[in-house]
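Sat 14:20. Reprocessing the chain from the morning session after the first attempt stalled halfway. Input below, unchanged.
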Amino acid sequence: MVKRYTLPPDYKIKTLLIRNEPQIKIIGELAEEAFIRFGHYRDFISELVWKENVITSIIVNKRDDQDIIGFLVLGFFYEDSDKIPKGLYADILAIAIDEIYRNRGLGNQLLKWCLELIENLCLAGDKVNCIKLTVAPDNQNAVALFRKFGFEFEHEEIGEYATGVEAKYMFKDLNGLLEPFGN
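Finished this time. C-alpha cells:
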C-alpha cells in the first residue's frame, strides 16, 4: 500500500511574495529549532529570506499567516567554475518542518513545490542546469527524502557545519533538460 501524504486540512503551501517581519521572525525561530544540531541559524536563515535571488515557500494556516509549520528557501545562482555545470543553478538553502509535524510528508510537499517551480522556470526559458543542497550525511530522513527526488551525493567533501557535524553536497543534474521529478 502506498502512503499518500497531504497537508493538514487547514494548511496550504504559500510563496512569500511580500516578505513581512513577523513571518520572517517565525521562519528564523523555526530554523533555530530545526538546525540547532548544526549551529545557530536564526539570523542566517532570516537574512537569506530577504535576498532578491531567493524564493521562500511556507506551509501556513489558511486562516492565520503567522501559523507557519514549515518552510523551504530556494536560491538561484550563476556558476562558472568546474564544480557543477556552468550556468544557472538552483540551491535549496534550507528546508525545515516544525518538530510536531515531521514524518507526515510535509517535506515531500515542499520539495515537490520547489521542483515544480524550477520546472516552470525551465518552461519559461530559464535553463537551470542542476539543483544542489547541503546536508549532513547522517541525517537519514533528509537523505532519503532527497534521494527519492533524484539527488545524489557529490563525492567531494565540503566540510562541516559550525558545530563540527559533517556537511556534504547533494546534486540533481538536469543537464539543462526537464526530467520527471519524484513523487
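The beta strands are 11-15, 54-61, 64-79, 87-97, 128-135, 152-153, 159-160, 166-173.
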